[in-house]
Amino acid sequence: MLLVVLMSLSLIGIIFVQARYISDSVKNEEEQFTFNVKKALSFVSKDIEQRELNTYFRKFQRLVDQKKDADTIAITQLLFNQQNESTDETLIYRSGILEENYKLSSSIFDIGLDSINIKRIISKSETKVYSNKSVIENNVNVNPVLSISKIGRFNEAEKQSFEEAFKVLTSRTPIYKRVKKEEITRLLTKKLHEDNIDIDYEFAIYSNDLATKVQSEGFELKDDKTFSVPIFQNENSQNNFRLLVNFPERNKFIMSSILGMTLLSFIFTSIIIIAYISALFQLLKQRKISEIKNDFINNMTHEFKTPIATINLALDAIKNPKIIDDKDKVMRYLNMIKEENKRMHAHVENVLRISKLEKNELNISKDSVDLHDLVEDAITHIELIVEDRQGFIHLHLDADKSTVLASETHFTNVIVNMLDNAIKYSPEAPKIDVYTETVGNSILLKIKDQGSGMSKAAQKRVFEKFYREHTGNIHNVKGHGLGLAYVKRIVDDHQGHISVESEKGKGSTFIVKLPLIS
């Protein structure tokens, strides 16, 4: 019992661990899926914003390069002068930044405003080294020992300044003019494929929770299943637009990613469950076999105990000087010894017969016999017992055909066993009726008693080897549970069929069906 409990707890633990592992795997896959989707959306959002900015910034650069006169100019200059006595040289460094501001028509940028203020930033630096002598002599026309000049544009500074102004202006531009559905589809599909997300999706851009024209045909807003990121931030790093995407087959995709692992887990868990059920069944079967074995040993011991005791008493009586000279008493005791010996021999033969049947070693030769003759012969073996208990056996041999192919010896034993069973399970005087009738090409043999009967459960197992229905005291009916098992094996060997009809307290009827021969 303890082993069964431990096995059950182990099985429950294994199932729990497997379920927890699968649940954690699903959760991890969902988290990874969410991370990859949000990463793809962020990439698409930034890529679209950067593309828009670059497009208009290149336009801006071409415009300012073509325009000669700036509307306003601002100059910032730095002068640095240093003398080095050890080298007898003077270093002069000059640096300046020129900001040229332009007011251009915004129609060039197609953003719907009158004008846009933009600036060009130019930097210039100059480094010259003079000898101290020329500087002291204040000779301004003297050539420097070393001269380095640099001039260039601050593109990044210009771009940053342009971006800040551009965000203010474009925030008023309709979203469908800033981005196309085809661009979102191309970028999003590419990025999702990089993370092995190859399923259908629907997207949209919403403004303040309201749908815009930029969306796929099948998009439906589902708060619990929709991913979103901001797009087109304004000058305050805020935005009114959000890029949304959902995946109609998201759950199917996530489950398919762990399908192989789940299937293997299910298979191995099923194997463990089957093994557990099989082991449990074997344990119960072994327990039942152990109970049957103990019953068999107890009953066989009881069956042998009485004959042995009788034989010992008879031998002791014969050894008595007063008895040994009395031939009648000696013969009586010798007959008792002989009968008890035959009784023990019969028990041993029953066990040997059933054992040989199990091993298919019992040689059964069949001949054409009359079943009615076998019934009458069998009755002669037990009629004295029935008479001794003031009972009766009534014959109703009504079959018009009764020739069967059977072993005379073994089938007589079959009938004797059924009659003996009827006698043993009749608490009062045995009242037995034997019937035969013809049914088609078969003959039915019915042996009906008015004994104690049996339960429905007992009827299902009455032909099992060693089985005997318990009645509180296993010795109240003598036997070892082999008789009816032997009967069934012999009937089966004769291509026949045996069954029982019974009701507790109202007796039993055993029915044998055998094929007739012409």
TrEMBL record:
Swiss-Prot/TrEMBL keywords: Kinase, Membrane, Phosphoprotein, Transferase, Transmembrane, Transmembrane helix
Residue spans crossing the bilayer: 258-284
A Pfam family reported for this protein in Swiss-Prot or TrEMBL: HATPase_c
Enzyme class: transferase
Catalyzed reactions per annotation: ATP + protein L-histidine = ADP + protein N-phospho-L-histidine
InterPro entries: HATPase_C_sf, HATPase_dom, His_kinase_dom, HisK_dim/P_dom, HisK_dim/P_sf, Sig_transdc_His_kin-like_C
Entry protein name: histidine kinase
Lineage: superkingdom: Bacteria
UniProt EC number: 2.7.13.3
GO molecular function: phosphorelay sensor kinase activity
Positions of the Histidine kinase domain: 299-518
